[in-house]
Amino acid sequence: MHCVARRIDRISYGAGLFLIIAALLTTGGIAKAATYKGAPVHVGKGTARIVVKTDKSGKPSSVAVMMGPDALRGLPTGLNKKSPEGSWEYPLPMPKDGPKIGYTHVVIDWNPHGHPPPHVYTVPHFDFHFYGISEAARKKVSFTGSKDPAIKVSNAALIPPDYKIIPDTAVNEMGVHAVDLTAPEFHGKPFTATFIYGYDKGQMNFIEPMVALAYLNTKPNLTLPVKTPAQYSHSGYYPTSYSVRYDKHSKTYLVAIEGLKHWSRK
Question: Contact at 8 Å (CB) between 256 and 222?
Fold first, then answer.
C-alpha cells in the first residue's frame, strides 16, 4: 500500500509540475525568443515586410526586410518622375506589437538606373532606409539653392571611421549620405552590398544597407561588420553587423541589421 501511495504521489507531483511549467509558458513566466512581423507591402510582383526578432530576454536581436520570391520581378524599369531622385518608394510599417527599437518606419527605394556617384552606384539596386525620425519629419527634409549641403556634420562623433559625406548625395525627403571610402566599390570592384549613414541638419536620421539587384539574384549568404560611430542622434538599437541572404526554405530574401546594441541619448 505504501508503495502504491508513493507512486500516486510521484504521479501527482509530476502532473503538478507539468501544469506549472505549462502555466508559466502560457503567461510568459519563462522568457522565450519571439518574432514580430509588420504588414506586407506590394513590391514588384511580390511583397515585402519588416520582421523583428528578440532573444530569450526580450531584447531585439535583429530587424530585417523580408522580400518574397516575386518581389524582384516586375519592378519598374523607368525613373519615377514624382520622386526626388527618380526612385520608387515602398514604405514598410513596423510591427504593431513587440519591442520599441528606435525605428519608426523603413523605406525600400528601388533605383532602376542607380544613383550618384557615377560608376559606383549607377547600377540597378535597392536602398533600405531605417529611419529614426517620423514619416512626417522625413517628408520635410528639403534642400534648396545651388550650394551642395554635403559638407561636414558638426559633431564628428556621429561619423564612423572611414566614412565621409560626399557631394551629390543630398536627396529631398532623405538627407545627405556618408559612405565608407574603403568599401570595395570605391577601389575598382563591382558594387554588391554596402552600408550607409544618413544625416540632415547635423543629425543622423537613418541607417541604410544598400544592395545591388544583380547581387540579390545570386541568392547570397553574406554577413559583414558595421563600422559604428561613437554617438547617435536618436535613442535606439543600432547594428554591429548586417546580412544579405536568401532563405531557400521560405524562398525569401532577407536584408537584416543584426548584433543590435542599445544607445541612449542623454
Answer: no
